[in-house]
Specification:
The complex is a heterodimer. Chain A is of the alpha+beta class. Chain A has a domain at 33-104: Alpha-Beta Plaits, CATH 3.30.70. Chain A contains 4 helices and 5 strands; from the N terminus they run ββαββαβαα. Chain A has a two-stranded antiparallel sheet. The longest helix of chain A is centred in the last third of the chain and has 7 residues, at 99-105. The mean pLDDT of chain A is 89. Chain B has 2 domains: 5-249, Rossmann fold; 256-406, 3-Layer(aba) Sandwich (Rossmann fold). Chain B has 12 helices and 18 strands. Chain B has a 7-stranded mixed sheet, with helices on both faces. In chain B, α3 (63-76) packs parallel to α4 and α10 (305-311) crosses α11 (333-346). Chain B is globular and about 70 Å long. The mean pLDDT of chain B is 96. The chains are: A alpha+beta, B alpha/beta.
Chain lengths: 116, 410
């Protein structure tokens, strides 16, 4: 048991009859992008919008708007790196950056305080 | 129902089960052949070839696939059936738990055959006992007539309880033995089994569902508890459908059958075809003035423990016959259940302020276990008479072994 405030979950009598999820498209509500070690970072100035990354992404984590790549859905991207590998642009329009690096660059709460 | 000549037929157990399947006319049958159950689906396949049923037959490459196809068909919203035996049932084992856990009302004809090794194709109950904890309701048949009637009821039981059902016969003894049976008219069966209308099914595109999703530690236990509750509730469902069958067609079915048990001093508990053999011996011994009786569990899962303990309450000594051994260095699976039932009926959990926990010593009676018929070893009238004699001997005070291996050469 954790000391966190416990979420009240339904008992077996209150649940639907068995392990049944009612409704479609429910996978959208279950975020699966939190076990990534590397993330793809989009470099828009290099992108030729061939959509190879969009075709090859084994999830649906490449966001395309009006035929153009605009970035990645980090709530679902697992960091497999296939998009970066398949990117045909010389010098690559997709960079794989380690999550640690992303984390380290992020401003820390104490730095924010120091600014103030 | 009025029995006319056309309703009386000569059929083997396998033919009787195939006939029941023809009348049920399921949406999907997926099966793989295995002795001695092959005929059930082989005969059924000929009904499909002759255009007598609308069933989609899936000739799969293994029993694991047969059960997988049944799970898919049932989840899609269809009535799915299969038939197998022994090694085939063993190969299905993984999928049996999934069928039950997803609460899919699949019906299976299982012809009891021992499990290898050593390699053997003959009857014992070790195959069905291997999957006793899979969440499938298990109905044992004494003869071809019961096999036929049980198959018809199984469809209703499964769909009402939302649990899959195994209906068993004894390999070769029932499956290949020709008997006189009474069959119902096609439209009577059609009316009895009705139309299957599941509340949720995968091909219902207006009401989308996900079935079989990952169930982590925070929900799995609750879903299993629901499954256990369904098994507990299935007792009354089975009893009600048995009563309805009796009202409509004259042949009554309960959770278990008692035969001349009312004033019996010595009783045998046994399942399957052996119960028929025992009835002959009971009649014979009764005519000689010996107070003997029989209790034949019809459903082993759910095990009707309170009801069986109550039915045996006035008997002085009990022999439980097991056509398989649990290899647990204790006793056979039926004996374990009967003993546990009688133990529970003899002890109280509440504490009396004066006497402490109440234990009704009078209700504890000696129970002997007879493991018999493994790998198709014959069980004869004199074997049964021997057991009754042993019981009366024990009542007189002679020491007996708790677990006995009947008919094995020492």
């Amino acid at each position: 048991m954790t000391s966190k405030k416990k979420e009240k979950k339904p008992g077996w009598k209150e649940l639907a009859e068995y392990d049944l999820i009612i409704g479609g498209g429910t996978a959208k509500d279950f975020k699966t992008g939190d076990w990534r070690t590397k993330r793809p970072v989009f470099v828009p100035e290099k992108c030729i919008h061939c959509l190879a990354c969009w075709v090859y992404c084994p999830d649906a984590a490449v966001i395309v708007k009006e035929g153009k790549v605009v970035g990645f859905d980090y709530e679902f991207c697992k960091g497999c790196g296939i998009c970066a590998h398949e990117c045909p642009v010389k010098g690559k329009a997709i960079m794989m950056v380690s999550e640690k690096e992303v984390r380290d660059k992020r401003p820390k709460p104490e730095d924010e305080k120091a600014k103030k | 129902m009025t029995v006319t000549k056309s309703n009386i037929v000569a059929k083997t157990g396998n033919e009787a089960m195939a006939e029941a399947m023809r009348q049920i006319n399921p949406d999907v049958v997926a099966a793989y052949p295995i002795t001695p159950a092959t005929e059930v689906v082989q005969i059924f396949a000929s009904f499909i070839a002759d255009g007598l049923v609308d069933t989609e037959f899936v000739p799969v490459e293994s029993e694991h696939s047969a059960m997988s196809a049944c799970i898919g068909a049932s989840a899609a919203g269809g009535r799915a059936m299969t038939g197998t035996s022994s090694q085939g049932l063993a190969l299905m084992a993984e999928m049996l738990y999934i069928a039950a856990g997803l609460r899919l009302p699949i019906v299976m004809a299982d012809v009891n055959r021992t499990l290898s090794g050593p390699l053997n194709i003959h009857c014992d109950h070790s195959d069905t006992m291997m999957v006793k904890d899979s969440g499938w309701i298990q109905i044992f048949s004494e003869n071809a007539q019961e096999a036929y009637d049980n198959m018809l009821q199984a469809v209703r039981i499964a769909e009402t309880a939302r649990l899959p059902v195994i209906v068993t016969t004894d390999g070769f003894i029932i499956s290949h033995g020709m008997e006189r049976i009474e069959i119902l008219d096609d439209d009577e069966v059609k009316k009895f089994v009705g139309v299957y209308t599941p509340k949720h099914y995968l091909l219902d595109f207006d009401n989308l569902i996900t079935l079989g999703a990952l169930d982590l530690p925070d929900y799995y236990f609750e879903h299993k508890r629901q499954e256990i509750e369904a098994m507990i509730n299935s007792k009354s469902i089975i009893a009600d459908i048995g009563k309805e069958f009796q009202t409509k067609f004259g042949r009554g079915y309960e959770l278990f059958e008692t035969y001349r048990l009312d004033d019996a001093e010595a009783a045998i508990v046994a399942m399957g075809s052996t119960a028929g053999t025992i009835k002959v011996v009971v009649d014979d011994l009764r005519s000689k003035g010996k107070k003997v009786g029989l209790l034949k569990p019809r459903v082993y899962r759910p095990f009707p423990k309170e009801e069986i303990a109550d039915a045996l309450k006035d008997v002085k000594i009990i022999a439980v016959m097991d056509r398989s051994d649990s290899m647990n260095a204790q006793e056979g699976p039926v004996c374990l259940e009967v003993k546990a039932a009688i133990y529970d009926a003899s002890t109280s959990l509440s504490i009396d302020p004066e006497h402490g926990r109440r234990v009704d010593k009078a209700k504890f009676r000696p129970i002997l276990n007879y493991i018999y018929g493994l790998g198709g070893r014959e069980i004869r009238l004199d074997d049964i008479e021997f057991i009754y004699n042993e019981l009366f001997d024990a009542l007189k005070g002679t020491d007996k072994e708790r677990v006995n291996y009947l008919g094995v050469r020492e």
